[in-house]
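Forum: Protein Structure Q&A
Topic: Joint prediction for protein chains with partners

I've read a bunch of threads here and the consensus seems to be that you should model interacting components together rather than docking separate models afterwards. I'd like to see that in practice. Below is the full input, 1396 residues plus whatever partners are listed. Could one of the regulars post the assembled result?
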Amino acid sequence: MADKEERKELLSRPIKQLDLDNTITVLDLVKAFGNTSIQARNLGRCFEIYEDMIADEDRPTIILGLSGPLIAAGLRKVIRDMIHNGIVDVVVSTGAIMYQDFYQGRGFKHYVGSPDMDDRMLRNLLIDRIYDTLVDEEKFEETDRMIAKIVGSLKPGNYSSRQILSLLGESIDDENSILHTAYKHGVPIFAPALNDSSIGIGLTLYYENHKNKERITLDSIKDNHEFLHIVLNSKKTAAILVGGGVPKNWVNDAVVMANYAYQKEIEGHSYAFQITTASPADGGLSGSTLEEAQSWGKIWQKATKATAYVEASVALPLIVGAVLQGGVPTGRKKINFVWTDDSVEVKYV
Amino acid sequence: MADKEERKELLSRPIKQLDLDNTITVLDLVKAFGNTSIQARNLGRCFEIYEDMIADEDRPTIILGLSGPLIAAGLRKVIRDMIHNGIVDVVVSTGAIMYQDFYQGRGFKHYVGSPDMDDRMLRNLLIDRIYDTLVDEEKFEETDRMIAKIVGSLKPGNYSSRQILSLLGESIDDENSILHTAYKHGVPIFAPALNDSSIGIGLTLYYENHKNKERITLDSIKDNHEFLHIVLNSKKTAAILVGGGVPKNWVNDAVVMANYAYQKEIEGHSYAFQITTASPADGGLSGSTLEEAQSWGKIWQKATKATAYVEASVALPLIVGAVLQGGVPTGRKKINFVWTDDSVEVKYV
Amino acid sequence: MADKEERKELLSRPIKQLDLDNTITVLDLVKAFGNTSIQARNLGRCFEIYEDMIADEDRPTIILGLSGPLIAAGLRKVIRDMIHNGIVDVVVSTGAIMYQDFYQGRGFKHYVGSPDMDDRMLRNLLIDRIYDTLVDEEKFEETDRMIAKIVGSLKPGNYSSRQILSLLGESIDDENSILHTAYKHGVPIFAPALNDSSIGIGLTLYYENHKNKERITLDSIKDNHEFLHIVLNSKKTAAILVGGGVPKNWVNDAVVMANYAYQKEIEGHSYAFQITTASPADGGLSGSTLEEAQSWGKIWQKATKATAYVEASVALPLIVGAVLQGGVPTGRKKINFVWTDDSVEVKYV
Amino acid sequence: MADKEERKELLSRPIKQLDLDNTITVLDLVKAFGNTSIQARNLGRCFEIYEDMIADEDRPTIILGLSGPLIAAGLRKVIRDMIHNGIVDVVVSTGAIMYQDFYQGRGFKHYVGSPDMDDRMLRNLLIDRIYDTLVDEEKFEETDRMIAKIVGSLKPGNYSSRQILSLLGESIDDENSILHTAYKHGVPIFAPALNDSSIGIGLTLYYENHKNKERITLDSIKDNHEFLHIVLNSKKTAAILVGGGVPKNWVNDAVVMANYAYQKEIEGHSYAFQITTASPADGGLSGSTLEEAQSWGKIWQKATKATAYVEASVALPLIVGAVLQGGVPTGRKKINFVWTDDSVEVKYV
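Posted by a regular:
Agreed with the consensus. Here's the joint model:
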């Protein structure tokens, strides 16, 4: 008897077969995905969660974790648009993504290649390959040296990656740049492993020239400090995780740091969705589920969450395209971060 | 010197960063994907190849291989639309896909579930799970018995899966059905491993009741025979492979059969694209590259080809949606298959 | 309070760090794997389950499902040894695996190649590639024609794949052959999609030469019939699934067929382990979990089961090597299948 | 004619079917793998390359990159044994691996769990899940605070991760510890993203208590500086990459840094093998091929290299077990690193 009702309940929400006749726009498609299955449904769920993040009147701080070949993938302006439209408040990235944004900001390009090119021939031609995309190593080296020069303008002291990246964003004049747009809007960008990137190479060139001199440090615990105070002082947080690696782990770890350092009991992220191609089966961080993060308290036990196993060059334009076509609610507050020596104020304006 | 030119040549086609401001429709998006990288570019390539298949004045026979939980995934009408719009001429499928089309054609449904449900509880409730989707086992059993009954109307003899599936398509009256639409348009559907499916279960129920009687056989070499003559008598062939398994292998093997049986030197498919999530690294058929198929002569050495590593519930609506929004050329010929005892005529009308 | 005990209970079985000093043999290693984590633990679990299958006094019928490039992978003798040592009672395979066993049985070979060879060049040389392995297409064609000739010796009638494969096993004289060893031991081998393989090509060559004559059919529902009676008449069943595709699905479907056809309530497999690299995330059969199969009743609700996400060329020798080093219990009964027209007797001798 | 010879050449090295009768030890198995195909062959190749690294009379500096849940996976002693036996000279790791080594070094444990546990329940019990493994959050917090205390003993200044990890290794007394064994043998361990780990949390706890005081910094560019001089001053380098992420990227980037900073033309790694489950298809660093790294000059154009797509808990014990069973050549030189303010001397003793 009870079984009959449970059965009825479980068989109550039918899949709707996707109807291309009524699927004209990106928004139509992503909405329709939500009523289908497998990864299309997951993409639809990510979209719905993103809309919930934006509509939440508690104004969660939306943190975007970025990893993978996203500039090569053609997502530079998509990410820039997320910042420009105020649907991202904090960015946590690999250094490589921000480096390649900067490289493009200086007028250099990514080119169409193929995964099965002869890499030894490319080496001879000073062309570097990123899967199916090519970059110009001569311009890379030039850019690395430019970074060394730019950071040389800083007065000696300890800097977080946020401060270095803000300086780089300030130094270029490109409306389509992620770094520049974030700089303009006061959106902080962290690269907690900035040393492991071509920006890190630039910083190392600087270092090698300042070995016995007063110099700047990339003080990577300062990153932790700054980010933990953002989390501590936000009403709520929401996480969007594109790819795995350090950005994913670090976006989630902040809650633990905040709680341990200040004996608080901050709940983890209230919303979270991730876009990944990594399988959970190797037990690694990149493929780890959002449920696993709940056991650690990094994501709230009652959080709304979804994972889409779809490569980001396809998934991100679908989700962000649908959100922007759907429209950001008018009157939604903006978050301003006011940095002090010890902490950061989170202002809703 | 030569190097300089080669370098210039290799660095000549820049990636275009995707611009959501100019990306309103599904067609806009998929076109833009073609100028980006990673799997988005591959999706864009699949679309371009599909357009080439359709525009080719030699009117290639377009063969669609289907495998995976495509009806659960909400792709029933998308596949039906491909047949209805004449952009597919022959379908090669798993039995499960056609069974689930038939199950829906009888008015039954797929329901929203989740991959982490308690499967032992579902067993007790007679609910069957397909990843994140549920079906009603009572209706499945009912449908299996119906199939046994329908094939019981055939007179004893040897049948190909095409003939069985055509009979099933004829028996339902549902505009949105793949089987029914194919039946109406004379598009043959093969399921070379039809025994391995719930349709196979239906046929087995029939078999067990006819053990010592005259009966029909599912003569699976007849499938090979029929399909080989389609390939043999087509001007050209093109393959669209959604998922791996038997359909993928069989769509490609026909060329070899045709050549061995009739001492011909038919080239393999002139166009091919595949949508898969299987990695080549396990050496299996499902993840095998189209290049590997070229070594066997199954795909023409000079074929236009692409592979998108994107799950089908997302990839297929994007590609087919874009093709249909782009429009099928007017005046394009239709292929009619005229079945004779020994062979099949391929008529362009 | 209750929580404290639950906590203690959950934190009661420590991981044992693998100690290479005490890990000399394959058996040592696989046993040690069982006390570690991630896929090593799963491999260890598969081994333990295999030992349980063999030790079970109810003498379960052990069914081995095979898919993937296993002969190319060098597993021919490993599989042959499973049959020879009586730790497999029934084999369900793709046609390709049995074909390649037969090809080797006729003295032909697989050769070391590489995944990034020039496939168009290979085509010109009549060399076929299987991932990183090469075969001789001239010998393939010769073997296909030999198969056509061998089946030509059969008198007209309807045959299951088991009967065809038994005939092929009889025709070669090679102690290391899977087909030949199975033939000698009376172990049935099914290839439910035999038409989709080079054996199928051989059968098609035969078909094309007998179009208007009396001929044999590959009666693929007869496969279902035969296999269902094995399952129906076994005390218990156990499934070992190497790879996905038709063999995996069909090994599991038999229970459903048996129940529907004879209104029985046979439980699904009492033991099951699978070796796969397919992820569940695309919703397909190949990556589907054994839990999902429980919702369908294909695997018993209380079955012992495990899945190792490790490619078979590595996983199978580890598991089988450990089982054989551990030793098969003496006095263990053998299963004899006695085939009748309508059914099959399962004798424990 | 030429073709005939090319054909003969290509079909000259047959696969040897694995024979379990002659495969008793781990060494037997891994050697036999080298004559098979698919990932078994790749594992065999990794083993052969490791033997070449060790036998090379130019005494390459062997750098081990580590990422993934390796302590949970039971590989702690395997990695410790690599250091103890002198077959690794430098370790580059995630912070998490070294943290979990330290946690175990303080007497705490990892426990057997399962990937489908109820994570919200685990949260309530203060148990943290790593895929199928559990750790004790109370002991984690205790360990984090201990780390804060230990680094508190350092005098203010700028430290590399190597210096912090050496301090932690010194502080525990556990023969089976990676950190402790490396400390004893003078093997440097870098964690270039040490801030992103529980060690980073410990350092952050320290930071929050020293905000306006003189304090230590984790000077992450100092890591780059130190590692670049190791590479610069080594005769040759060899890379073993277990997993992806920052360790993989950073191990490879050092060559670029060294060349840019000192206008040298150091060749990339002379040997490299990687163990990974990440597919190249998402274009990300973790799945990127060693060929791709050659286009960047990070791996030498003529390097000996291999990639095994096998999860590390299975692959690493096979490879290292076989190498140790095979025996390290007697008289092989040891590398001593002598650290100076500006650089590091590489001594062969």
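The longest helix of chain D spans residues 38-55.
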